[in-house]
């Protein structure tokens, strides 16, 4: 099966099956990486996601970490969420434990292909390890 060609992040997002989020998986909103364009879009919405290494280090120290986009247990930038967040629940290997997974979930290989394509279309991945 050949996948449609994405010419923009919006085209890519349309290739990800829709997930009817019930807002129950807030504990799954942990450290992520995203493209340069996705990070800029979140900053424009007033959300600064910490560098991945900083977030992981906080968790390793036993600190609570929640995505800064969460407000009252819901994503306040849901319509602008990064690719990895869109894949949550829509991918066989990242099924939502609360049943928010479409019947036709993506394979892990397909989700990896979409993540690589997102990096190409979105200006590369933000180097989340050093914050640049």
What series of H and E elements makes up the topology?
A: HHHEEHH
Number of spatially distinct domains: 1
* Radius of gyration of CA atoms, rounded to a whole number: 15 Å
What's the number of extended β-strand segments? 2
Task: Kindly describe this structure.
The protein is mainly α. It has one domain. It is 32% helix and 3% strand. The protein contains 5 helices and 2 strands, in the order αααββαα. It has a two-stranded antiparallel sheet. Strand 1 and strand 2 form a beta hairpin. The longest helix has 14 residues. The chain is globular. The model has no long low-confidence stretch (mean pLDDT 86).
Question: What's the helix and strand layout?
Answer:
Elements (H helix, E strand, L loop, with lengths): L8 H5 L22 H9 L7 H9 L9 E2 L2 E2 L7 H5 L20 H14 L11
Antiparallel strand pairs: 1-2
Summarize the structure.
This protein has 132 residues and is mainly alpha-helical.
List keywords for this structure.
two-stranded antiparallel ribbon, mainly alpha, 2 strands, 132 residues, 5 helices, globular
